[in-house]
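Students often ask what a holo structure prediction actually looks like on paper. The answer is less mysterious than it sounds. You provide the chain, you provide the ligand, and the output is a string of discrete structure tokens encoding the 3D arrangement of the protein together with adenosine-5'-triphosphate.
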Amino acid sequence: MTATPVRLPISNAAGETVSNMASRPARKMIQIEALERRFPNPNGKGETQVFGDVNFTAHEGEFVCLIGHSGCGKTTLLNILAGLDKPSSGYVFVDGKEVSGPSLDRAVVFQGHALMPWMTAMGNIEFAVKSRWRNWSKAKAIEQCQKYIDMVHLTGSESKKPAQLSGGMKQRVGIARAFSIEPKILLMDEPFSALDALTRGSLQDELVSICQATNQTVFMITHDVDEAILLADRIVLMTNGPRARLCEIVENTLPGDRTRSDMHTHPNYYPMRNHLLEFLVNRSKTFAKEIAADGFDPRNPPVARPQAGAQAATRLSAASDNQSATTEKKAS
Ligand SMILES: Nc1ncnc2c1ncn2[C@@H]1O[C@H](COP(=O)(O)OP(=O)(O)OP(=O)(O)O)[C@@H](O)[C@H]1O
Ligand SMILES: [Mg+2]
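The corresponding structure tokens follow.
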């Protein structure tokens, strides 16, 4: 049985309970600046921009979800963060260092489990651990693997191969493998989308527990609005492609100790949910008109805090968050 995750409720200066993002430490783990990706057109003439002018910063211990319609460039963005793809222009820094290729600092959980079928669950995780810490003894590596196998509740299934595991169990091995190398950031591309609702729910709970235990920074793509509200401190909204834009950052206004079973009873739940659905149904398509009326600074995208009783999402400045890593580098 999976334990219900508990996040500490956080109070602001006025004593009100707010999202656990209020406790974010200042260390910037992900900095994305003026990022653009173009692909050559299939007819060989010219290129199409998938997305452009993407600017975003995430801090250590923060859980960020990215939401946008199919084809807007979410996986492409995640692949660039992972170092598996290169930007056409712009920069990505992880913990202050520019990303130039894949690294064990950044673990990826793919939509499919991406396990090696000839290896056992333990073998798959051990392979990653041995790549990370090459001089570790077999016993030390196994101890590290077992810690994360136990954390995802797979104790007893260590010697099973992927074909002998259920879909949810395979995803758990993928998650254990990603956490076992203690990466600076964890990148997840719709990790639970192929799973049934019950399995998805228990894996979400496990993810929350592990993230709290390890203060893991997570960047996760999802299409599931409730999943984003449960897991994320902030939700990044991307408009439809081509030429998609990161158009808004939504701060989670639910308390940090929310759980799957009680979050829908919080007064801010429906404002959050409606705001995200309104984006997916309407605003993701009509963003160009919205910015023509309102103006838009891609270096400082608007921040929304959907709350009960509020007329509309409040827009706040995110200027301090998006201070350029290149500028900081020059200043130091
Ligand atoms: N290697 C490539 N060459 C050419 N075009 C590509 C390549 N990779 C992705 N694209 C295009 O970039 C766009 C974004 O693709 P991407 O896979 O990032 O979308 P996505 O937002 O992850 O979609 P989904 O929600 O369906 O997973 C699509 O139009 C896709 O065809
Ligand atoms: Mg994708």
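Residues 74-75, 189 surround magnesium ion (ligand 2) (CB under 6 Å).
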